[in-house]
Amino acid sequence: MVHSQVQVNKAHKTKFSSKSSRKLHKTSHQDGGRIRKSDSSSVKGAKAARVQRGKMLREQKRAAVLKEKRASGGLNSAPRVIVLFPLSASVELNSLGQDVLKLLASDGSGIASSTVASSEYKLRATVLKAPHGDILTCMEMAKVADLMAFVASASSPWEENKSNFIDSFGSQCLSVLRTIGLPSTTVLIRDLPSDLKKKNEMKKMCASQIASEFPEDCKFYPADTRDELHKFMWLFKAQRLTVPHWRSQRPYVVAQKVGMVVDDESSGNCTLLLSGYLRARKLSVNQLVHVSGVGDFQFSKIEILKDPFPLNERKNQNTMELDVSHDEEVLKSLIPDPIKQEPLIVENTPDPLAGEQTWPTEEEMAEADKNQKQGKLKKRNLPRGTSEYQAAWIVDDTDEENSNDGESDDDGMVLDRGEDSNHERRYDQDFEDDGKSLNVRDFDSATQNDSEMMDDEDLTEEQIKEEIKKIKEAHAEDEEFPDEVETPIDVPARRRFAKYRGLKSFRTSTWDPNESLPQDYARIFAFDNVARTQKLVLKQALKMEEEDRDDCVPTGSYVRMHIKEVPLGAASKLSPLVNTTKPIIGFGLLQHESKMSVLHFSVKKYDGYEAPIKTKEELVFHVGFRQFIARPVFSTDNFSSDKHKMERFLHPGGFSLASIYGPISFPPLPLVVLKISEGSGAPAVAALGSLKSVEPNKIILKKIILTGYPQRVSKMKASVRYMFHNPEDVKWFKPVEVWSKCGRRGRVKEPVGTHGAMKCIFNGVVQQHDIVCMNLYKRAYPKWPERLYPQLL
């Protein structure tokens, strides 16, 4: 029986095929010689699952966008903040601000507040005018702005120069605002000609000259007539606003009314009342609040008031004033729970008995007696004047090393090696080999060097200083190391540089981060794992945002915050600032953000600031919504090492690391550093940067270089003078490695004479004009500020 042959084409072979699909081309006699087709139900099921999953993702994104749109422009959302910022002093903002408010107000007259509700646009907005020349007010307005409307004047743009539209203060503010983080931006062009052709040409010229200063999606609009403002407002209403990420992580209130209740004048504190719309996130009455420029505090109560600017009211209520307290209806009051309320902890209280030694046990005392008896049987070479108690702390290895040198009165110098002692043994071997090859003439030359060093001992102190000064002036051209310091003549170097030590390698040598910490480190807090703590804190804040809790105020509500124990002097300064339209910001703190720690910032000196910025100089740090005083330590930002070299000044042109004592903040956060002048002048922008980490164990080392000058050179040996001024200092610093500016490395062999000269052995031939150097390091710490907050200076 012959089967009928029917042509059957093989299916398309895909790149990723299963085992079953690979065998489909095989024929079987049982099936009549035909190739079976695969069951497409599984394929259809997988395709249906992919389609369903894509549909669910689209619906989730659509719901998220709709929720964000309702939160930013819905009936229950807070009014949008529009900041009018002049790019030059020739821009007139008062007329533009009045035109925008009249356009938004339904009746068009009687504007008594900067916040209006427009039933025509179905929009509520707060219009703020940034004053030209006041950098502090401009920064505070930019921190709360939903839309930055930069205003340019086209009155005199005939020259092809960008400075016609943006002056020096405008350029400075743009640099600062880019560091803080720009929200949605737009540019309004005023004073355009009435002729349509010239108007379009002028608009294109303005846009082409200043477009590079703004984001790519920034739009340019004419803003001279009411129709042009009407067009801009409709586009603004439909625009999806974007804000910096750090602003969306914390709830904040821009105060529209400020008051205070004095409970007890003798205490010097009062209860501060801030009224405004809650933005970004929910606010719990149990969390802490920070008032910008004043400090961190606790809530005594939060009241949810009736919205003073509802969209569904009549026209005559659109511009009602907020200073009528009897019309404020309290809808709900939230009282903090003493058990759940976060405590206000700023500094750690150190325990004075924490470092005390406990009483030893009997086993420890017996072992100590046994070790003491064994130590007495062993002969030890100790420094002169060492007591038995001090001798008990000297390690035997160090004693054996000192005994091998044959110097019973040698003082000890700490040297962190990080490598084995092969390097020193190699120098000893080189010295022995070199000693075998020396002839009689070399030996006489070395003896002559010693005698000449003895002749210099007859010099007086003034003559020595004068000779050192001449040598310094002779080598001033080759001065390339800013860390060089002079060894004092009247103070021993071992006392002057007692806190310094040598390092075998700056990159690989170890340095204990918990060794000899200052007393200020007992006042700060540290995390075992900063990244994990930040993740948990943000997760907890997101959980509070998603849950429906009784102790939280929903976003967009008009609230009155009762902040307790605010200093009376600082609260009295806040009330007049509301009338001058300077924003007063109160924002909720995340967990741990009130505690002090060591913060590290990546900073760069502002190009327009020419004055030097010295380490530990008092500066004002603006970190996010916060502003506080700090005295930073600047250092190099090393990626290949766990140690950072301290810089005495903040150098321009590159990024440095600034370490301070400050309240804990979780990155990312922008940084603006201001320098307050001693007079009544405005603060100057000194540096810009961002928060990098919170890490008290980061090691910052101050480096100094001691220099000496070869008097006589004999191949790889040299007699060096003027690095030290007495032989005891030479013995103290003997373990530290020396090097020369011509690239030689060596060690100190022994002192010569009584005026601090010393013999050194190098790994190569030393030149007569060379300079011998010794690196010493000590750990540097920031300085604790005398006052933490500027109190609105």
TrEMBL record:
PROSITE patterns: G_BMS1 (PS51714)
Domain of life: Eukaryota
Start-end of Acidic residues biased regions: 396-413
Subcellular location: Nucleus, Nucleolus
Region annotation (Disordered) ranges: 1-59, 363-458
Location of the Bms1-type G domain: 78-242
Extent of Basic residues compositional bias: 10-27, 373-382
Biased composition (Basic and acidic residues): 28-39, 414-444
Database matches in Pfam families: AARP2CN, RIBIOP_C
Keyword tags: Nucleus, Ribosome biogenesis
Similarity comment text for this entry: Belongs to the TRAFAC class translation factor GTPase superfamily. Bms1-like GTPase family. TSR1 subfamily.
Protein name: Pre-rRNA-processing protein TSR1 homolog isoform X1
Gene it is expressed from: LOC104724431
